[in-house]
Write a structure and sequence with these properties.
About 50% of the residues lie in helices and about 35% in strands. By secondary structure, it is α+β, with helices and mostly antiparallel strands. The chain has one domain. It has a 3-stranded antiparallel sheet, with helices on one face. It is globular.
């Protein structure tokens, strides 16, 4: 699978959780990518983002989330 296809899957998963009302609460980055925690009420989901484009995308969405909360 191409890196672009992997990014599209990551983007779709991020968008799905955000549309369901989840909020990003914690990000842990290491050499194998980024682990992004999403929470909604008592539910918690964690996504492993491995592509550079995916990391850029969740960063943009995090900034958007922070601006909406301000």
């Amino acid at each position: 699978m191409s890196e672009y296809q992997i990014f599209l899957q990551e983007r779709d998963k991020i968008d799905f959780l955000l549309q369901k009302g989840y909020k990003m609460t914690n990000i842990t980055e290491n050499l194998s990518g980024a682990f992004v925690d999403f929470e909604k009420n008592d539910k918690k989901e964690t996504l492993h983002i491995v592509t550079p484009e995916g990391r850029k995308y969740f960063t943009v969405m995090l900034i958007k989330q922070q601006k909406e909360g301000a």
